[in-house]
């Protein structure tokens, strides 16, 4: 018998992608239940050619199910966690609700697959920027332990949901038509603009998004001594994050060795054309499963340090795909 699966938050940007990924996944899905708020209940969505009706998410939604993929926001995940676990249904949660909770594995299958086996009913999907970064860095870290990471991120509208993507569309159209436009989803004009990430500012001067990269890296690599510094920026791109990474290793890391490791790493593709000064861009990674890496060079200001450019689809590897891969790891 196949798996009985639910997608909570099915009508959101990540939920839509989860359905697409499930169609292509190795999971044998026998039943699929689409769950959302009462506002979305009654809508229809298609899975493997079959039209399914979205139902309201309630505490009774998980009876008899094997897996629930959650992407409905942290408050919803917290509200329905116990009902899901009590029903014997594995929760793979895409929100930040449980990521740093002790006893809840925080998993990227290419980075720390063994952690998933320690779950007690809940597995957390890391933040999109951390997933994309560590998918590329883990194969290097295994060979030459990382001491410090400096990350500058260039983050797409999709990280703020479907409404932010639509606002980027509408704001760009208004800008080109020389029409006035007032943003409602994001705090500042987004078209032809960029700004430091708008997540809440913390007491130390870092925003919440930046601290997620710090804390989640420590948890997944199981090393609190790794120094992580991040500056996160929203840029007017629809769904793909880019990251400029500066990595200090324990020992000197040869550039050719780094390229060889990345070319052999699961979930990573090296994409570049040095002769044309052409590197991976959001248009390359959009709607693609792999993280694209390249432009590896020595940091001429510091020993044992390399620079690396990484690009990945925020909705896929940064969210929906990684969640399904976790389920494949545990239930496949």
Task: Describe this protein's structure.
- With 332 residues, this protein is of the alpha/beta class.
- The protein folds into two domains: 3-125 and 319-331, NAD(P)-binding Rossmann-like Domain (Rossmann fold), CATH 3.40.50.720; 130-315, 2-Layer Sandwich (Dihydrodipicolinate Reductase, domain 2), CATH 3.30.360.10.
- It contains eight helices and 17 strands.
- It has a seven-stranded mixed beta sheet.
- A hairpin with a 2-residue loop joins strand 3 and strand 4 (50-53).
- Helix 3 packs across helix 8 (316-331).
- The mean pLDDT is 97.
Name its key features.
17 strands, alpha/beta, Rossmann fold, 332 residues, Dihydrodipicolinate Reductase, domain 2, 2 domains
Quick summary of this structure?
The chain has 332 residues and is an alpha/beta fold. It has helices at residues 13-24, 74-86, 128-143, 162-176, 208-221, 255-263, 282-285, 316-331; strands spanning 3-8, 29-36, 44-47, 50-53, 55-56, 67-70, 90-93, 122-124, 146-155, 195-196, 227-234, 240-249, 268-270, 272-273, 278-279, 291-298, 305-313.
